[in-house]
Amino acid sequence: MNLQVDENGRLRHFLSIDGLNRDILTDILDTAESFAGVTEQSIKKVPLLRGKTIVNLFFEPSTRTRTTFELAAKRLSADVLNINVNASATTKGETLLDTLRNLEAMHTDMFVVRHNDSGAAHFIAAHSQPHISVINAGDGRHAHPTQAMLDMFTIRRHKPDFKELSVAIVGDILHSRVARSQILALNALGAGEIRVVAPRTLIPAEIDSLGVQVHHHLASGIRDADVIIMLRLQNERMQGALLPSAHEYFQLYGLTEERLQVAKTDAIIMHPGPINRGVEMDSQVADGARSVILQQVSYGIAVRMAVMTMAMSNAQQAGDQPS
Amino acid sequence: MNLQVDENGRLRHFLSIDGLNRDILTDILDTAESFAGVTEQSIKKVPLLRGKTIVNLFFEPSTRTRTTFELAAKRLSADVLNINVNASATTKGETLLDTLRNLEAMHTDMFVVRHNDSGAAHFIAAHSQPHISVINAGDGRHAHPTQAMLDMFTIRRHKPDFKELSVAIVGDILHSRVARSQILALNALGAGEIRVVAPRTLIPAEIDSLGVQVHHHLASGIRDADVIIMLRLQNERMQGALLPSAHEYFQLYGLTEERLQVAKTDAIIMHPGPINRGVEMDSQVADGARSVILQQVSYGIAVRMAVMTMAMSNAQQAGDQPS
Amino acid sequence: MNLQVDENGRLRHFLSIDGLNRDILTDILDTAESFAGVTEQSIKKVPLLRGKTIVNLFFEPSTRTRTTFELAAKRLSADVLNINVNASATTKGETLLDTLRNLEAMHTDMFVVRHNDSGAAHFIAAHSQPHISVINAGDGRHAHPTQAMLDMFTIRRHKPDFKELSVAIVGDILHSRVARSQILALNALGAGEIRVVAPRTLIPAEIDSLGVQVHHHLASGIRDADVIIMLRLQNERMQGALLPSAHEYFQLYGLTEERLQVAKTDAIIMHPGPINRGVEMDSQVADGARSVILQQVSYGIAVRMAVMTMAMSNAQQAGDQPS
Known about the structure:
10 helices
């Protein structure tokens, strides 16, 4: 459980928001502030991780997520290896642990892991050498902590005091690793009020333990909200019995300027991307003045640069000590 | 139409030869001269675009073209992201504009665009932020301007005075974005005479407006020519009714040493590659003393380095100004 | 035959162990020693090949081998182009020689070649320009010389005096380019005794010319051995008549702690990876104190860095001379 932090409480892996306290999360946000400046410079490169090797270890393809991690790594001057595991070692029958041992033997420094099994990043972190850092880039339905932290960064830039905020998360809470990570982060950072807004079929059974209010109607769910986070509706979910159609979803939960009138006038609208226009929201909202969706993308690079440098620095100090 | 140049007439995007005057084209060729030296040095790298991010945004796969742009970018010390769009965002239903907005939000600086729709690069340039440069790496049947400029560079190295030259372009003019771009560039640079040589079925209807002579026989088409550009015959075209077979094509339009005797004795032979040996020409010609086909490849890197630095430098100055 | 060395006997290509004498092999091992240090530093990068372009030219996919060469190249500060030839030029009908000519025209410096035809790397080296170096990353059943040299490096680190050693190579000798290269290297370095251990169906006909002892039983084959090299059993071989099943193979030739008792007590166990656990050996052996399998992986980077710098340096001096 405390795999993520060393004995001094410093970040060593970044696997989930669970188990990280407000100090560490705030430290990540503060570090990301300095990198947000770097990505806006004319020369967007700092030599912090020069000579380090970062492996994008993707068991599930995702160009979008891989791209943001690759950019973050390159702007830190690290060397990047992109490894699509389906296409390589496992087809030769090599076990996951053998793949890890081999990558470690090549003197790599960090694994950015994407996997469709919940807990995969934890497993890899638990079985890696001390000097290796593991970053979870999404594991099954479990966690997507860098996404949650870029969301927190975006919120803090607009609304610095979390305890004043009412945050509504709208959509398929049941299947969303993003929502789970956001709720944990908002709680850790002391958000005033967290609401989840979804039909009954898309609310997880354990919702009561998460410290959130449950709403089934959009109007009540976003009333007087400061922050509205729209989750992406996975198309593959809509083919089952859980939801009849994208059209009907939009009728009930799609965000429009008209429906937004019940929220605070300075509310910000967020979405992890890519947007299904006309499903989660219409284009007027997506491209409107209150949308901060593209800022989320920008800040995503800075947040990943922050997490990478913090974890690698602490892990490599640990690796240098006698074990 | 003037999307490509700023208010001072400087290159900002490189989308087509159409709309660029002789001064800009000559400026590109002169800048490429300095980079031709760089690629022949022992250390083939200059720091001009260090800290910049160039995205190879390929909606149509092309290892060959992607490779030359990637090499050009790396030799300018830029970071390169290769994105095959079919394989990523569009499968998640994201619109092209959303893909652009996301890449911009990651603080990228240049899109090198390959697309099978004519006009795609223009569309992207029209919808990008001011500091972004777009380079067209081939769009449908419309344009392939870096190919045309490397051809002009190759010609000028051998035959410096365009107005003295008779240039013959042989092959499928109808479907060739390369031919279209070459004709525009040769006209802008004041070539003495431009001839197109092809069967009637492979000549476009609007040929009269292009300022070229039309020939249907190879012998008359290349008689006394200084420069002979053989177009690549696309295999997929030969399956339709336009042309009976590769064998018959060679009988009528294939270049041999014997047929070349009617051209000037110092004529140069060009081809955009890859050659279909025994279709557009036999190997004796392809590998002969008058062939400059491999020089075209070499100069292609230098020309792309020139276009990239010119466009990025001017676009970023524009992006710095209040809009 | 002497394609690999220049007139002064220095390495220019690295195609096979055949034709290289003990001095050159020892020179490779000594050079690799200095790079072994680099890969263990905090900043694992040296500027030796800065501004050089290395092409991973893979006609046969292999993420594992490609990765080690890519890492070696990046740690030498070279630019790397990964080209999967099946997916690109050959689908357009371009010949292998045209592909080479085009890559040379782009001013590349080295081809790392993987091909399923024996002799492909030699062919490419024979047809490349003088300043180009070719490294064989595995060709058909013929050779895999960097694998053999990382094995020699690993052996020498543990057992410095080759003439004292008894080395057993166990497995499918018939189909193994790795075994062929190992036997040649061990002979060149003066190994005391080389044994091959395999069923009759997996011993090549020309075995008598290789200077090895042949054993058909594991117990006699590894008795008093200092070094035991287990070859990987290719799954596709097991579907034919040569071997009945993986289970039966393990019964006869699989390494266990118990069977290892006949070897020297300080024997080292090697395997080129990836291991089929429970086929070539059980996990107790693979992960045991005598296994040096992961060291092979680590040293593989250093050996490849050594071969790349030696070959490129000598080839480029050759390329500078008038031809």
